[in-house]
Amino acid sequence: MGECMQEYKLFIGGEWADSSTGETFKDTAPATLETIGIFQKAGAQDVGRAVDAAEDAFPAWSSTPAPQRGKIIFRAARILEERKEELSRKLTIEMGKVLPEARGDVQEAIDITYYAAGEGRRLFGETTPSELPDKACMTVRRPIGVVALITPWNFPVAIPAWKLMPALIAGNTVVFKPSSDTPMLAAELVKILTEAGVPAGVVNMVTGSGEVAGKAIVNNMKVRAMSFTGSLDTGKWILGEASKSMKRVSLELGGKNPIIVMDDANIDLAVDGVIWGGFGTSGQRCTAASRVIVHEKVIDTFREKLLARAGKLRLGNGLLESTDVGPIINNTQLRKIAGYCDIGKNEGATLLLGGKQAKMNGYFFEPTIFTDVTMDMRIAREEIFGPVVSLINASDLGDAIEKANSVEYGLSSSIYTESMRSAFKAIEKVDAGLTYVNASTIGSEVHLPFGGVKATGNGTREAGSTALEEFTELKTVYFDYSGRLQRAQIDIEG
Ligand code: NAP
After folding, report:
1. Catalytic annotation on 252?
2. Smallest CA separation from ligand 1 atom 43, residue
3. Is 153's C-beta closer than 6 angstroms to any atom of ligand 1?
4. Is the shortest distance between the CB of 209 and ligand 1 below 6 Å?
5. What is the mean pLDDT of residues 435-463?
6. Does the CB atom of residue 25 touch ligand 1 within 6 A?
7. pLDDT exceeds cutoff 50 at 326
8. The CATH number of 2-253+457-476 is which of 3.40.605.10, 3.40.1190.10, 3.40.50.300, 3.40.50.460?
9. Which residue in 8, 156, 280, 298 could disulfide with 185, CB within 3.0 to 4.6 Å?
10. What is the model's pTM?
11. Is 434 within 8 Å of 411 (Cβ atoms)?
């Protein structure tokens, strides 16, 4: 892994530069604890320079016809595709997820990049008839200006790409701050955009702590919109703070996603879904299935089958084919997961499997299952963000849906059932931005909207054409070609 070791710089105005603070930080591989890169700790002054560079680049980039911007984004998609395997391996080293999942992360970035490139020839507005003769009405989309993107570590390429590509195709210029746990993949993405022909100043990257660099971005008056994915606490702070400068804010926050297993479900299929949703990415997905709400008639069979499967999961370095579950991102997260397991035991839940750090070099936590979990327990309500699944009893569909809805988050959800009625009831009644039927809580596709309700966000949706809502302003145009004064609501009554 030594070949990855490199000192990375900030990227401002098309130049790779040292930070003004003179400070750096280490990027650590969670499976081996090796240092894989050295990164700059940006200070407020660096953020100011990055925002100014983005502001300077805005007139030219926003005036470039969108189909031309699309050609550049399209080239970025091609480069990502060509480098998929190399990027995926780096991603596994930096973030820890197993290689097939890392390939999925990179593929998601490729998909959104092609999708956004195509938007260069759409960026649709609307036309509609006027209430007056000889008058045309339409909407057109305009870029917002300098937008800031702050991202977490669990999808080191996909989440930045989900934000960067729609922001760029819409004609905005960008200041991007990746997570301090995964700055290497962020730097690779920025290099690819530059290689594809994104002009200097259009994309700027500052690395460094959320406390310093992140806060300086939020407080910068020239940043007109922010797209943030991360924890609820940080999201709340950003929303409050950004209101002082009337920034538009898009938040994608935590989840506590339920899988409902009904008594008519295909139990083996549901077990597959819980293994994938609960332990994939070591449970470190905003859409991870952390609560499994099972009809009491089938919970004994379900528990037995789940335990048999989960007990066979192999922990290890994600680069190895033999590994099913990779490491936890860092020691803080590892301690947090261990803390929740203690809380669960103290609350009276029964620990069926795991519940502790694995005795291995690296940040590994054993796949964990609690049963006899009730909705008043913290492990049933709070986001753990680790490989911990709680089994909860339900007496019928109504009880299961009530339990599914009794948390503050509302991102993803799933129901396993053979009944159309139960499936449609769940689609109608479960408070979540996503509902899967007979599939796990994870697996979004880039051409559909992604986001959650309640404390998971503030109503925006990433991906699909809805991503453009985050990054464009609508202008309404009235074009009067009558050659005389026409008064809406007055000249034509009723
Ligand atoms: P986090 O601690 O909130 O950090 C996210 C990003 O915000 C990082 O770049 C972080 O920088 C930065 N940051 C921290 N404090 C900040 C501040 N005061 N001002 C500005 N930026 C600040 O979250 P995380 O631990 O990286 O990610 C895990 C969370 O993300 C989970 O809650 C998960 O559910 C959520 N998530 C949600 C979605 C979704 O789409 N809904 C998707 C993925 C993840 P540093 O890295 O330097 O601290």
Report:
1. yes
2. 286
3. yes
4. yes
5. 96
6. no
7. yes
8. 3.40.605.10
9. 156
10. 0.96
11. yes
